[in-house]
User: What shape does this take?
Amino acid sequence: MFNADEFIEKSLEDIKSKVTGKAIIACSGGVDSMVCAALVSKAIGDRLLAIYVDSGLMRKGETEEVRDMLESMGINYKILDAADDFFGVLKGVIDPEQKRKAIGEKFIRLFEKEARDFGAEFLVQGTIAPDWIESGDGKHKTVKSHHNVGGLPKDMEMKLCEPLWDLYKDEVRQVARKLNVRSSERQPFPGPALSVRCLGEVTPENIAIVREACYIVEDEIQKAAAAGKMDLPWQYFAALLPIRSVGVRADERAYGRTVVVRAVLTKDAMTAKYAQIPYEVLDAISTRITSTMGDTVNRVVYDITNKPPATIEWE
Assistant: This one.
């Protein structure tokens, strides 16, 4: 039986003994990275620098929300604007594995520069068990390379510190509650951000579409859950498909994009069932997306596939 108090006590001892110098961590605002930042900051104080990278691939309002969380937790942090860097390395990249590896490589190179400026010797990551299991660890076949595993360059200059390595998501949330981390109930968000919800080439224009679609899906589902119409799924979002289909708008042919809505129920992210969202909520999502984004999106579909055979994210 997992005991969050015992885990925190042991982790703080391990971090204090192993992280002997300055350290740097990427904080996305998700529960994994925020718990890691809270643990390491508690252990070594201002010897930790938390970096939030605005990659240009983040959700609507993400930067402001993460800044507020870091400030409220008293963690030493820096906001890094790197949108041009990431769109640059993703230009022309279609393959999902290559996207993840390109993003992982760029993250590390950016952090190495920030680490040199800060004098950091250690890179802290919020890697959890499903990340390295799905990335392939010798015993398990690769499902998809997580950018914090498959994207790490062999010549990386920093030493790794991964306090959550053996934990699953439900256990991380238990630790988050004990540490009063605000993102303890926040739905998961992938490290490569909206790039893996943008099937095909990642461009500023495509990211703008999927960002707004994700915001609408989250907003409508959260409103429905607050009104008692449904339970809040474990994860829910939109993905932009690399296809166009014929539609009609104002009695004229409209050749537009397709958005897929995904919502799942799971405990540990290793398996998942699709959430049975009420039709009235799906209708509200579809109507809002096509009415506010009608110049680009003319079709909304709902993914009713479990994991396996699908994964939770589309890439």
Q: What stands out?
A: The chain is about 40% helix and 20% strand. The first helix runs from residue 4 to 18. Residues 4-187 form a domain with the Rossmann fold fold (CATH 3.40.50.620). The first strand starts at residue 22 and ends at 26.
